[in-house]
Design goal:
About 65% of the residues lie in helices and about 0% in strands. By secondary structure, it is an all-alpha fold. The protein is globular, with a radius of gyration of 29 Å.
């Protein structure tokens, strides 16, 4: 299968040879270019240093290409920011055309110890080849080499990453009707399909502890492997696999890898009852934690699961079995809003669960809480989310309650000095339907001291100039001579 790629085996390009000849000697004298490709691939165990050299060269080539992409993006007049996935795909497409990738592919295809490569740090070789191999015959040949090895690969951090790459790149997602599933099954290459079925069997037949180990203990590879396989299971099998994790929600939420599996289950299962075990686990107070839902909402990884839960759950009011779960979270609205991670959960609730908005607003309007929300660097995001949402839906009554509380506070000066407070007033004043915006603007100008050097107050003045609420001349008088607002930036 690799015959066409091995016609001109050269483990070192001319440019690489000139750079490394002083350190490793000339080509053919013991350097990385010495010997044939077969010799190099078969000496994986005895002489790993040769592959280590190639691995270093691969990483250097990837870094060079990544820098090129970054510089090209920065040179654009109006650069279109690519997300991480788009940059990764562009990087791999360019890398697949390089001489370093060709040598990597040669080593993998002629290796007699492909399993050894997959289970070691050299699995990066295999993953790159898997992503770059598009010919069905070549895919089938590689899959045949791993026949019977899936169980061992999925128990290893490196091996599970290879399995995840194979499933992602070679197996289409089977979220289709049964007839189409059969068609895809018939079209799949024999060895590739056999390899996938072995992967599917490992996840489907795994017990709870083993499945939890895949999700939590094998690092990024194990978690990604479970996610890729789960996406390709039939819906009834997906529900069976998901239920195996019942009772272990907190363990998964505490894991930097397991939390992604829970989020993936929520996103892929169209029947919410199939992931109702998450609610059951987080409202169960039989153990030492009296409020597990709050603990998860304030944890570094668990809050992501709750945010996805709020987004993908039906927006209808809470069911009887959900009232206790949501009640515990909403009772702690202010405490969660001021937390590094908890404020994301409250924002998700407000945005995706309309029935919760009145409860959250009630906590904001209680006493002087709205000012506390405006002062806190995390809670201000919840307040801003509320103001923007109420403006977008035209809910003047409830937005007006927040506006009245903010404009009547005796802490105007303190709020203008802080970044959260200044952003709150900017959002408040951007609402042209707010009748009191002119009076609020004048109140803000009155509390900002002359020749202020506070950057938040200066930015707020600039915003009010742009909104035509304050004259440029008045703003200049209040700013220090270092940097007055720009004139008419609109």
């Amino acid at each position: 299968a690799a015959a066409s790629w091995l016609e001109q085996p050269s483990w070192q390009s001319a440019s690489a040879s000139s750079r490394t000849s002083k350190k490793r000697g000339k080509r053919g004298e013991g350097g990385i270019g010495a010997g044939s490709t077969e010799d190099l691939a078969q000496s994986v165990v005895e002489v790993p240093s040769k592959l280590e050299e190639l691995l270093k060269e691969l990483k250097a080539e990837k870094n060079r290409l990544a820098d090129e992409i970054k510089k090209a993006e920065e040179k654009k007049d109006k650069p279109d920011k690519m997300d991480k996935q788009e940059k990764s795909e562009m990087l791999h497409d360019r890398f697949a055309t390089t001489d370093a990738f060709r040598r990597c592919r040669e080593a993998v295809f002629v290796s007699d110890n492909l399993k050894g490569l997959c289970l070691s740090a050299f699995s990066e070789f295999v993953r790159d080849v898997v992503k770059g191999t598009t010919d069905p015959k070549h895919r089938d040949d590689l899959a045949a080499k791993l026949d019977g090895q899936v169980a061992d690969l999925m128990k290893s951090q490196h091996g599970s990453q290879v399995v995840a790459s194979i499933v992602e790149a070679w197996v289409p997602e089977l979220q289709v009707t049964d007839p189409e599933f059969q068609r895809l099954k018939e079209e799949a290459q024999g060895s590739v399909h056999k390899l996938y079925k072995a992967c599917e069997s490992q996840v489907h037949q795994a017990g709870q502890d083993e499945l939890l180990r895949f999700c939590n203990d094998l690092g990024f590879g194990g978690s990604r492997c479970v996610q890729e396989i789960f996406s390709r299971l039939k819906s009834n099998v997906q529900e069976t696999v998901a239920q195996k994790l019942a009772g272990r929600t907190q363990d998964l939420c505490k894991s930097p890898h397991g939390n992604f599996v829970l989020s993936h289950i929520i996103q892929k299962l169209s029947v919410p009852k199939a992931w109702s075990f998450i609610i059951e686990d987080l409202r169960n107070t039989d153990h030492a934690d009296p409020a597990p839902a709050v603990s998860v909402a304030t944890s570094r990884y668990g809050y992501r699961v709750l945010c996805d839960f709020c987004e993908y759950r039906s927006p209808k009011p809470a069911e009887p079995d959900e009232e206790e779960f949501f009640g515990v979270i909403l009772d702690k609205t202010f405490e969660l809003s001021t937390n590094d991670f908890g404020h994301h959960v409250i924002c998700a609730l407000f945005e995706h669960q309309p029935w919760s908005q009145q409860i959250i607003l009630g906590h904001m309007l209680k006493d002087d809480n709205v000012v506390k929300f405006a002062e806190d660097k995390h809670a201000v995001y919840v307040l801003e989310k509320a103001l923007k949402h109420l403006r977008s839906v035209g809910d003047r009554a409830r937005r007006g309650q927040l506006e009245d509380k903010l404009s009547a506070t005796d802490k105007l000066k303190t709020l203008t000095e802080s970044q959260p407070g200044s952003y709150t007033f900017k959002e408040l004043l951007e609402d042209t339907a707010f009748n009191g915006r002119g009076a609020v603007a004048q109140s803000l100008v009155a509390v900002i001291p002359k020749n202020t050097t506070n950057k938040n107050q200066k930015r707020l003045l600039q915003d009010m100039v742009n909104m035509r609420l304050v004259s440029y001349e008045d703003a200049v008088q209040l700013c220090s001579d270092t940097k007055p607002p720009e004139r008419d930036v609109l």
